[in-house]
Design a protein that fits this description.
Layout (H helix, E strand, L loop, with lengths): L2 E5 L3 E3 L4 E8 L6 E8 L6 E6 L5 E3 L7 E6 L4 E6 L8 E9 L11 E4 L3 E6 L1
Parallel strand pairs: 2-11
Antiparallel strand pairs: 1-3, 3-8, 4-5, 4-9, 5-6, 7-8, 9-10, 9-11
Length: 124
């Protein structure tokens, strides 16, 4: 059974930082690329960024320069490091796994396994 679980969401003031974790089990973590998406209330899910199996990263323009991604294959964990948070970053954040051969990591359709999300609230 594959499990994907996000954690680390919290209420934080604008300008603050958070680190989200995505812990997985039941799959070969290093063989997958990992994406982060978010969905704010009343809005569609949007791509935040992804880190490929070979550590190449891609960021949405809205978070570039503020968010970074990393992964620890020994811990089966992917991380989303968020700095300079803004109120518009408020959303539920989701981690998802895509096969290493997936090319379009900006599309949610490329992902096989999803976590249930963790809530991030940024107050102004």
């Amino acid at each position: 059974q594959v499990l994907v679980e996000e954690s680390g969401g919290a209420l934080v003031q604008a300008g603050g930082s958070l680190r989200l974790s995505c812990v997985t089990s039941g799959l070969t973590f290093s063989s997958y690329s990992w994406g982060w998406f978010r969905q704010a209330p009343g809005k569609e899910r949007e791509f935040v960024g992804a880190i490929r199996w070979n550590d190449n990263v891609d960021y949405a323009d809205s978070v570039k320069g503020r968010f970074t991604f990393s992964r620890d294959n020994s811990k089966n964990t992917a991380y989303l490091h968020m700095n300079s948070l803004k109120p518009e970053d408020t959303a539920d954040y989701y981690c998802a796994a895509a096969h290493r051969l997936s090319s379009n990591l900006r599309s949610g359709n490329s992902y096989i396994y999803w976590g249930r999300g963790t809530q991030v609230t940024v107050s102004s």
